[in-house]
Amino acid sequence: MTADALLRTAGLRRTPARLAALDALHAAGRPLRHAELRAAPGLAGVDEITVYRTLSTLEEKGLLHRVLGLDGAWRYGRNDPAAPGCPGNHAHFLCEACGQMACLPDQPLPRVSPPPGGEVRARSFVAVGRCGPCAAGKGSAAP
């Protein structure tokens, strides 16, 4: 689904920052750190607070999900079942060498029961290891 259509479905205004964030995540096909998003086309000149507010709004409306890496950095992924790579509620893989995160959409997550009276709104699982390039000694040294 296009960024424009996702925003309309969620009842949000189409702002340049929202469109750029959703487009950047779609193009990447994997969750991105805040710094990676700020460097994306359309967001490079946007101030840091606006990017954080944009991500927060998109997450509140269910268009994004957050995944916390073991490095303490949040990564944001686009919730779009029709999009490749990162449809939400799935496992992720974090490379401990280069810090890149990949989606594993075909990996089932365990069922989780909420506490009495509660509800589960999302599930997350992060497997840690080395990506192919890093395992072969060809990856980048650090995130």
Secondary structure layout plus pairing:
Blueprint: H1 3-10, H2 16-28, E1 32-33, H3 34-38, H4 48-60, E2 64-68, E3 74-78, E4 91-95, E5 101-104, E6 125-129, H5 132-135
Parallel strand pairs: 4-6
Antiparallel strand pairs: 1-3, 2-3, 4-5
CATH architecture: Orthogonal Bundle
At the first level of CATH, the class is Mainly Alpha
The proportion of residues in beta strands is: 15-25%
For CATH, the homologous superfamily is named as Winged helix-like DNA-binding domain superfamily/Winged helix DNA-binding domain
Instruction: Give, in spatial order, the strands making up the sheet with the most strands.
Output: 1-3-2
Number of contiguous helices: 5
Q: How many strands, what sense, and barrel or not for the largest sheet?
A: 3 strands, antiparallel
The succession of helices and strands, N to C, reads HHEHHEEEEEH
Number of strands: 6
How large, in whole angstroms, is the Cα Rg? 16 Å
- What's the number of structural domains? 1
Termini Cα gap = 30 Å
Shape descriptor reads globular
**Helix content range:** 25-40%
Unreliable segments of 5+ consecutive residues: none
Task: Report the average pLDDT across residues.
Answer: 84
Structural class: alpha+beta
Query: How is the CATH topology named?
Result: Arc Repressor Mutant, subunit A
